[in-house]
Write a structure and sequence with these properties.
Largest sheet: 7 strands, mixed
Distance between the termini: 40 Å
Shape: globular
Helix content: under 10%
Order of helices and strands: EEEEEEEEEEE
Number of strands: 11
Oligomer: single chain
Radius of gyration: 13 Å
């Protein structure tokens, strides 16, 4: 059974940094693409960053140059380093995994999701 558990969210002032983590359980980590997505109140869920099984990464336009996605050595942990945070980055951040996708940012295609961790950026 695939389980994803996010941590690391919190409140930070604009310009600050946070590092999110996602611990994965119950599947063959190396054969799954993984990604970070976010959803702000009243808005649709959007793709933030994705890493595929070959290590190829893609980012949403609004976070390019500020966020970095990475995995631990065993690929059982996913990270999102967020720098130069802006108030518009405020959202619930979700970790996702899928065995059949490459590097795609469309949330509706992903099969497995964590419960999310809240990030709040104040001006």
């Amino acid at each position: 059974q695939v389980q994803l558990v996010e941590s690391g969210g919190g409140s930070v002032q604009a310009g600050g940094s946070l590092r999110l983590s996602c611990a994965a359980f119950g599947y063959a980590y190396s054969s799954y693409s993984m990604g970070w997505f976010r959803q702000a109140p009243g808005k649709e869920r959007e793709g933030v960053a994705v890493i595929d099984t070959d290590g190829y990464t893609i980012y949403g336009d609004s976070v390019k140059g500020r966020f970095a996605i990475s995995q631990g050595n065993a690929k059982a942990t996913l990270y999102l380093q967020m720098n130069s945070l802006k108030p518009e980055d405020t959202a619930m951040y979700y970790c996702a995994a899928d065995p059949n996708l490459g590097a795609v940012l469309r949330p509706h295609l992903w099969s497995y999701w964590g419960q999310g961790t809240q990030v709040t950026v104040s001006s």
